[in-house]
Amino acid sequence: MLTISSAFAQRVFDNEDNQPYDWSNFEFKNFFYSAVICAVVIVLGLLLRKNFDNSFLKGLGTTMVVIGSIVAFAELTGPILGAIQIIWQVFIGSAIFFGTIYWVYTNYIE
Q: What is the pTM of this model?
């Protein structure tokens, strides 16, 4: 269901090359299911580590936390960074626009 190599290839490395995230490949249903599954795996791993004294179960819990974190990073990073990039560009564009309007108003209109 979740293949780490294809997730890294599509979602993570594209952002490192300063290319915008390809929103045509985004499917909310898959994003939501991935987020829920990763959260459940991480929480179960943390519960195993906390509630049991058996070293095998603690090791299994640690493994579950690590695997859940890696898959979450691979699956969820691209869309989240893409959304942050859009918000940042809107913020910077607004700051430049309103800064220019303010500069023109204070220097030429008043």
A: 0.58
